Amino acid sequence: MLGRHSEMAAKQAVPKAESDNVFGQARKPAKMFRAGLYARVSTNDQQTLPMQSRAMREYAVRRGWMIAVNVREVGSGAAKREAREKLLEAARRREIDVVVVWRLDRWGRSVTDLLATLQELDHLSVGFVSLTEALDLTTPAGRAMAGLLAIFAEFEREILRERTRAGLAHARQSGKQLGRPITAGVHAAEIRRLHRAGIAKAEIARRLQVGRTSVRRILAAAMTPRKADDA
User: Fold this and answer.
1) Is 34-154 CATH 3.20.20.105?
2) Using CB atoms within 10 A of its CB, is residue 76 exposed (0-12), middle (13-18) or buried (19+)?
3) I need a surface site. Which of 74, 89, 197, 218 has the fewest CB within 10 A?
4) What are the CA-CA distances from residue 87 to residues 5, 90, 101, 174 (Å)?
5) How far is CA 167 from each of CA 160, 162, 174, 195, 206, rounded to the nearest angstrom?
6) Could you give the residue numbers annotated as active site?
7) Cβ atoms within 10 A of the Cβ of 30, count?
């Protein structure tokens, strides 16, 4: 009897090896995220480019992510971000699983632009991480912060609309003419009259402040019916 108890205690003391099967099925290895890194600097601030790249690479290594795409871009804030578009194209082709940036303003030109690109990445099931703001859209908390960005984007659009309305009201009060500028067609009769008086086309354009091409087009249109009648 004592021998049997000793044998059972010995079996319980031996830890069971972790099984690679779950409910009779093989355990699937965790998927390694493919990261796309995006570093951007202005033309006058290129010295921070290596620092951004190093910080993003170290972050990706800590998270166990594979760096699939590493993009660097130099340019002014208003310029079109062609390198960023290439990274978005990689996301659309499902070549990356997450985008990593150093700071939000490196990625988006405005709150509206930032939100539009984040919404597209979310639609593509591609995550987004900004190191400086500690924004991680691969987590529930990060996705909640993205909802706040949508509020700020609407706030920004409302400010722009209000500024536009205020600017138009001020222009009207100042007596400025709004809408599209007057076209050369308004001066068609005067253009034909001056041309019949022997005024050169270039001089007509200068006097009426219209383009030479417009003057030639109006005069050519006036001559067409006359040639048809002569025929």
Assistant:
1) no
2) exposed
3) 197
4) 65, 5, 11, 47
5) 10, 9, 11, 40, 31
6) 42
7) 7
How far is it, in rounded angstroms, from Cα 58 to Cα 205? 64
CA distance 166 to 36: 42
Per the CB < 8 A criterion, the answer to whether 90 and 96 are in contact is yes
For residue 76, the Cα-to-chain-centroid distance in whole angstroms is 14
Q: Mapping DSSP to helix (H, G, I), strand (E, B) and coil, where does residue 69 land?
A: strand
Question: Helix 212-230 vs helix 201-208: angle between axes, to the nearest 10 degrees?
Answer: 130
The per-residue b/e assignment along 62-75, b for 16 or more CB within 10 angstroms, e otherwise, is eeebeebbbbebee
Q: What is the largest CA-CA distance in the chain?
A: 132
CA distance 202 to 67: 62
Measured at the alpha carbon of residue 115, what is the angle toward residues 109 and 120, in degrees to the nearest 5?
Answer: 110
